[in-house]
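SEQUENCE-TO-STRUCTURE ENTRY
===========================
Question of interest: how does this chain fold, as expressed in backbone structure tokens?
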Amino acid sequence: MAEYEEIEENNDQNEETITKIGGMYEDWFLDYASYVILERAVPGINDGFKPVQRRIMQSMKDLDDGRYNKVANLVGHTMQYHPHGDASIADAMVQLGQKELLIDMQGNWGNIFTGDRAAASRYIEARLSKFALTVVFNPKTTKWQASYDGRRKEPIDLPVKFPMLLAQGAEGIAVGLSTKILPHNFNELIQASIKILKGQSFSIFPDFLTGGIADVSNYNEGKRGGKVRVRAKISQKDKTSLVITEIPYATNTSSLIESILKANEKGKIKIKKIEDNTARDVEILIQLPGGVSPDKTIDALYAFTNCEVSISPLCCIIEDNKPIFIGVRDALKHSTHHTVDLLTKELEIQLAELEEQWHFSSLERIFIENRIYRDIEEEETWEGVIKAIDKGLKPHIKHLKRAVTEDDIVRLTEIRIKKISKFDIDKAKQFIEGLEEKIAAVKNNLANIIDYAINYFKDLKEKFGKGRERKTDIRIFEDIVATKVVMRNSKLYMNRAEGFIGTSLKKDEFVADCADIDDVIVFRNDGKMLVTKVDSKTFVGKNIIHAAVFKKNDKRTIYNLIYKDGKTGVSFMKRFSVTSITRDKEYDLTTGAKGSKLLYFTANPNGEAEVVTINLRPVGLIKKLKWDIDLADLSIKGRGSKGNMVSKYPIRKIELKEKGVSTLKPRKIWFDETVQRLNVDDRGDLIGEFTADDRLLIINQKGDLKTIIPNLNTHFDSDMIVLEKWKPNKPISVVYYDGERERYYVKRFMIEHPDREEKFITEHPSSKLMIVAMDYRPMAEVIYSKRSLENEIINFEEFIAVKGIKALGNQLTTEKIKDINLLEPLAYDEPVLEEVELVEEEIIKAPDVNKKEESDTDSDDNEEEDEGQITLF
């Protein structure tokens, strides 16, 4: 019975301690979430470190003696502060070292370009960098807390006097939130901090150790919703190969090559071979098959591979033990003001130490100079000694800045006899005066703390900023339309009669090369049009008269058609373009009446308009059965327009009389230097108006030139110095230095082979182009390096005649040239070419077929009787 009562009592006690499962989950999960957010994933705003990074830095400081330490030893020491395994600490330390800011590394620390891992921690060594020792540590201004096991003291925040958070960046995933702070340029952060202190406006943008090109137009200060697009730096090595020399942030050469190979397998791009020659610098060589455009391939690499990545920043940090979301501008302002506060504290501590030193030095001088130490010879007790010294000091301490304490007197009693015997009054005075100068300087710095902080930042830049120039170029990217750059490795076929179109109809009529992301535009005999996506086999309606790969927003492809209205029998003609549609929706190009049909149709890629002959049926009293219509007289309207009337009588046949020329005006082309691209949207500098036969002239600093047909997808190298519309009759004038002969030459030449890239200076490695003049009659001033030589004026036209592009030219001088400046060219009347005026007005009505005129019908009596024979082009 007693045993049963004991069990019942124990059960009662257990019931009192039971907690509901819901409450346990709520408390435990909240504790876990708080721990992960505050102690693992998110950096602090004051020093920019996550807890593991902060503990690594403190451990490195504990063991710092100027020599390298094994990373394994540093990891083991960090475990006294960090309650996690050695692997996580080692990984965090490698990531910290690869940012090349705080840790001086020795050994194989991995490669951020290739993604290779670091060697094991027992094989690599590290020590604090000079920069870290300068800006990260100061035990006098550090607030400490007990470590996780209570055995040591660790810093709550390190007193970092630099925007470390933005310089290094940070990334972490916690419970319910994440952070992704992009790294910024060292020198730019310092300059921005100085501007903050001066009250000036500033802006900062990411900069990545991997280089590349970044579009930060939507950066949004690193806040939620912002986006940064980063591209690899790709250039054309020659006509059949490309080279990647810089890669996007958060990628490596292995992942980049893998994405390129996948795109090649899917047919998005077409490459022959790819090689990774990356060592200290990135070099990925891409060999292209013959006939593949390098410019188009570059765009395709950006569109379908990791050569372009989009990064969504999210600046989340810990402030006052709470996660907050701010922008990088606010983060930099906080860091800058925090640096000022730390500098103020350091100066205040320094001032207190100097004043204390001055106080005791003054007491020491009084004590020795006035021989007060002799007053204690007769004293037998310690209290008597203290009183005797205090009494001896009183007549001499009026100038001191604080009262003399018992501790001060005790320190005086500790002065050695040797020091008293060798005491030099003059040296003591000089030392005290030196302390007074230092005190005055510190007080002046405190009074002008902003100027002091500005000088501090300038000193940091001077000491540590060299070699930390911006690596990532800032540009604005143009959106790449995938359908324009995809490699068309499939073939499109159609069955006109049955109305099928697709890539699997290999026994039917070939239409064009295509890609799986393309759309197809289809026109039928009944006057219907639709656009559908490329597939293996799609039914689009019987009696197809035209099909092609559809280009969205294409204003240069013009369709000419003549149709018969099914209700009235009247025929109409019109010209139109198709720029945008709803996919798989049928559009009626006629009036929509039942029985309407197309009589004539052409698709013209450059707006051509032909001359056609209309043949009517000899019905009733019609006198004029045949006449010509120039479709160029029709204005280009929308696809839904009814069109202009051709005839109200039945048309027997329409014949092509004369092929057309383009009726579109020359296209104005601009060059946007910001994105290094051509455009037709009035952005940048106008190059000129181009017809189908016009070409662009490109000259680079290496002395290479070429002419190309303008293409909006063309890429331009950074060393390009001339980009203009090529005029075949205009000579090019240059001054260059010949490295082999060590002389300067002048030459003038015409481009003899427009389709060939040519070099117009000598091939010697030391040869260099000095100046290019693109005027008809240029003038230039030569400035020599020797001051004794007067400047020389060159009239290129008189100096040398126009010769071949491979000619050496005439020698200018053997003296060293300091500079060449182009002057105002001589007058020249450029020949004016006769231009054909382009008609844009409405068409004049077709001839009145009822007008009584002599008819020439003899030759028409035996014509075929098929109504409205369709002509296709």
Observations:
- The first strand starts at residue 69 and ends at 70.
